[in-house]
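Priority: medium. Attachment 1 of 2:
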């Protein structure tokens, strides 16, 4: 799930370079400890705006992070860069690196952040999250799953492998990711089926969880539902018209934050996606 950090005492000055984790700190009741965030850490709106920003997730200003004198910096293996992590560690700043690939991973991460902050694991944010996730599990068990295609980018067309938080959240909401077994292949021509893929030994260390696919490949997987989130790519009506050409598939729009943010409100988000899938079922 990520690199564990053990602190001698609860963190009191936290810089978060991850939007979901900034929201987590606030939802755990520790807004007063959040002394820095990125430009993309915008939730909860109306609450977090007063926290100073230190740049983007990929280009955080290390000097500004250091100036905030944090005793803990929250980063993510996927959202932030190895260069950022190395720079923070070179400055002897305690750095927690997360990498949740499932809803369960994310729920454990919320607890881990709470522990690093010295916050009771029985707090309202965590108990509410747990109850919502349990409700989602019960709903998932009582319904026939829907075959779903969920793109994350339009040009090039990209989607998600099963080893992603997004895919697992979709599954919990009642959707079967039709590309769960499809890794990204290298080079690009191989990913699009135009040549042989490089062997695993030649791509060691590369992320294979976000394949590029063709519309023909999507149609061949026969999804019943095309789920279009509004982030990271803001899918719109023009995109929907492209996918509506796939026989037998219906197109719906959902909140990207409901689908991909792994803060304590992930339970609420999964239930919102489940509601959208239930509306499709009629």
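Attachment 2 of 2:
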């Amino acid at each position: 799930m990520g690199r564990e950090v053990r602190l001698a005492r609860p963190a009191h000055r936290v810089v978060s370079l991850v939007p979901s984790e900034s929201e987590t700190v606030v939802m755990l009741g520790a807004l007063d400890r959040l002394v820095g965030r990125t430009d993309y850490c915008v939730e909860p709106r109306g609450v977090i705006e007063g926290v100073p920003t230190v740049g983007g997730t990929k280009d955080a200003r290390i000097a500004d992070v250091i100036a905030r004198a944090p005793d803990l910096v929250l980063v993510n293996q996927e959202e932030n860069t190895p260069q950022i992590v190395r720079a923070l560690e070179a400055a002897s700043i305690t750095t927690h690196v997360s990498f949740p690939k499932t809803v369960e991973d994310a729920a454990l991460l919320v607890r881990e952040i709470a522990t690093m902050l010295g916050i009771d694991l029985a707090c309202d944010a965590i108990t509410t999250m747990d109850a919502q996730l349990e409700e989602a599990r019960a709903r998932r068990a009582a319904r026939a799953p829907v075959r779903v295609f969920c793109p994350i980018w339009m040009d090039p067309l990209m989607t998600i492998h099963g080893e992603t938080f997004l895919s697992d959240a979709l599954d919990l909401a009642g959707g079967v990711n039709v590309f769960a077994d499809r890794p990204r292949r290298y080079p690009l021509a191989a990913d699009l089926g135009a040549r042989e893929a490089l062997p695993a030994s030649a791509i060691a260390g590369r992320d294979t969880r976000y394949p590029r696919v063709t519309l023909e490949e999507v149609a061949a997987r026969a999804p019943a539902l095309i789920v279009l989130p509004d982030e990271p790519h803001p899918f719109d009506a023009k995109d929907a018209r492209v996918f509506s050409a796939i026989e037998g598939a219906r197109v719906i729009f959902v909140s990207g934050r409901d689908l991909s943010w792994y803060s304590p409100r992930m339970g609420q988000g999964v239930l919102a996606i489940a509601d959208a899938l239930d509306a499709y079922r009629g």
